[in-house]
């Protein structure tokens, strides 16, 4: 007889089979977007000090890594380029022979079925390290848009399947959409970094991408971590401007925002599990303080549970291997 005093929730946890049947959230290797850092030169494979397991690779050493990711079931990668030369307008970002453009052509030639996403920003390519044009210490909004559109078009020309603008200038989605359409790339989607906070969790990435601002910070264009309603406005304007995906970044301290955006919009949502979130897990795991595999899979699951469809994560290749083990 049912005891009316309390519910026996543990019945559904009694065996591994029952637990797996009632599991509500599932990670798949297809959910992951795997970031790769590409550099000029030959025979370069340098580990990023603050991101163990993440490397700068020259193009001659890139294919092996891509092959491995694809073998594990990864369907999408995102490219971050480190140019040899920087100037005040980030010319290498929109150079037909820029590092990202060449990497894209090379990867699409060997893996036409792989989704290659191009991060569209200027900060890795500008000598001042800001994501737009700078004048008297101000980051100029409208003047930066033309350069971003140019960058996106050159990435699409090189074969990028998705354009992912991360610069946080106002109007970047409509400027890039117009640029792509005019150049005949109306079929190339925009994965907008719609909700991007001015976060301290980007520290290791800036070491990796050599993209710290030389002066000032990014607080006039990235969002205040204290704000929630502002995220709704940012996401809404990107939807209105024609974004095809919405990124929320970072992920872990912003799971509430992922849920909010999921509840308000029907576009696919991408959680960006950023460099600092990666570095903390790596550091703790290297000290033997946590179980890396269990912690990573739990974290990634929490992002999907919060409402993300896809996860951009430096753990993608490892996580794919772990998922394959358990299948
Ligand atoms: C900027 C950009 C950033 C990251 C990727 N592209 C942030 C920034 O430097 O402001 C951070 C990613 C990470 O921390 O993993 N264009």
Automatic annotation (TrEMBL):
Domain of life, per UniProt, equals Bacteria
Q: Which residues does Zn(2+) bind?
A: 121, 123, 131
What does the record give under GO molecular function? porphobilinogen synthase activity; zinc ion binding
Query: Which reaction is the catalytic activity of this chain?
Result: 2 5-aminolevulinate = porphobilinogen + 2 H2O + H(+)
Keyword set includes Lyase: yes
EC number(s) stated in the UniProt entry for this protein: 4.2.1.24
- Pathway assigned to this chain's UniProt record: Porphyrin-containing compound metabolism; protoporphyrin-IX biosynthesis; coproporphyrinogen-III from 5-aminolevulinate: step 1/4
Q: Which N-terminal residues, if any, form the signal peptide? A: none
Q: Where does Mg(2+) bind?
A: 234
Name the residues that span the membrane: none
Residues annotated as catalytic: 196, 249
Q: Which coenzyme or cofactor does it need?
A: Zn(2+)
Question: What GO CC terms are in its UniProt record?
Answer: cytosol
What are the UniProt keywords, alphabetically? Answer: Heme biosynthesis, Lyase, Magnesium, Metal-binding, Porphyrin biosynthesis, Zinc
* Residues that coordinate or bind 5-aminolevulinate 2: 275, 314
Pfam (any one): ALAD
The protein's assembly and partners: Homooctamer.
Among NCBIfam families, the record links this protein to: PRK09283.1
Return the similarity comment: Belongs to the ALAD family.
Q: What does this protein do?
A: Catalyzes an early step in the biosynthesis of tetrapyrroles. Binds two molecules of 5-aminolevulinate per subunit, each at a distinct site, and catalyzes their condensation to form porphobilinogen.
Q: What is this protein called?
A: Delta-aminolevulinic acid dehydratase
Q: Which organism is it from?
A: Salipaludibacillus neizhouensis
